Give the backbone structure.
Amino acid sequence: MSQVGVEPRAPKANAVGKASGIMVASMAASRLLGLLRDTFIVSHFGLGNASDSFTIAARIPDLIFMLIAGGGLSSAFIPVFTEFWYTDRRKEAWRVFSVVVTICSCIALVLIAVAWLYAPLMVMKFGRDKPKEVIDMAVLMSRIMLPAQFAFLIGSVMLGTLYARKQFLAPGLAPNVYNIGIIVGASILPTFFGFGIAGVAWGALCGAFIGNILIPLLVMIPQGIGFVPSFNVRTPGVGQFFKLLLPVIVGFSLPSMVTLVSQYFASPYGEGSNIGLNCANNLMQAPLGIFGQSLALAVFPVLGQFFAEKRMDQYRSQLSKTIRTVFYLTIPSAVLMYAAAPLIVKIIYGFGKASHDPEHLALIANCLRIYSIAIPAWCVQPVLMRGFFSLHKTFKPIAWGTAMTGLFILLCAGIQAIQFGSLAIPGATALGIYALPWATNVAAILLVIILYKALEGEVGKLDRLGFTRTIAKGLVSTVPMGLIAYFGSLLVQSQGKLVSVLWFMFVACVAGWAYYYVTSWYKMPETSYLDKALLKMKLKR
């Protein structure tokens, strides 16, 4: 059955600003819920084999998501659907939607079925040298979670219709509902229904379908949705969709592959290696979501408008300003995480069974310190990618991302050959699993340098002097905040959780203000944004 609703008038400027705020808040909430999700898992199941089994199991569904370019479906679909929708061709828009959903559904179902059948073989590849009970549980959980990929893939197209119609609430809820499902699966299902670690997988499955299928449907149906199953690839717009999607399908960008690759190489390092590396990586990615992706999302439409209007001077100015802001915000974030890593890990993961495992908590803290070095690079990367996308160029950034993924794999393989294989070097094993975060940093920093140079080749020179000043002054300004965070965190190492949380909040605030005052003394232009925010708060009072 098909029905087509009437679209309300385009939102006013303040409504668009509000929508952007919703997305920024949603991304921050998603990152925080992701950390809380990990907290519940390690609290109930510890930092050993049980948590390793879930971490390994999640890699199989992730692989399906990447093979069908799930992360790129929405980006390729939105411009096609938008073009039809806002040129009074809404029936054609729904025809494109119908064909894309039908074809993607079939591809997803086939891949899910194949992965379900070969799950034992795939899990054994990711879970090298793990005990049989870990492998068996990972196979079970991967099979439970595989259908969730259908929800993610088809849901991304459904959510794309809402993005195109300037509706951001439901898309903002989707990842948060998914994380809430995992939290419920880690806490309630094992405690009251005896599911064990498998409850986490069931929670992930339910959260995926509720967040990515049910919620979008509840929003779309009252407004009107036109869907008729169709394989007509000659439908106008379908060819354009697959043309936009092709670079994402053939490419394997570093940000999307780094967790998958890291987990493959983490397994040989023993019990708790998979969950430990995963927890450290998730902590490192918190600033990426709060600062990097949020600012990239905010600047994307502005860059697109400047490019469309051929105002390239303003394009370069806005892009440079955004990159400087990212550096200004993420350099202190990296220093804070490095200086207070043990306390941060204790606050986030030191609960329940995990609290009795100081060895693995130390492993997470040490990995976090290594990861934190490249936080500014990780956060600048999505801004540079949006720079390319605003120029309607997708091949070049994906190609370089794929090249860096290949380099990252070679680095990891070389590290393990030196540590365990035919190229074994005496003493190389001392670095252990910490070699993997270092390899991640090398690939991430190289990728940003290459993307930056390539983007300058497209749009002209950016504000190199401004970047140098921001980075140099930012690093100097973090010295007092780093000392405050480091020595302040040492004072509560033996204290309880509540004292540790309250003290960390106090130390983080003091360290943050120290950074702000030093950068103000340097008269860094980026401090003006915080000044304006503080002024608005005073005016509201």
Remarks:
- The chain has 21 helices and no strands.
- The radius of gyration is 24 Å.
- The chain has a mean pLDDT of 85.
- The first helix runs from residue 13 to 45.
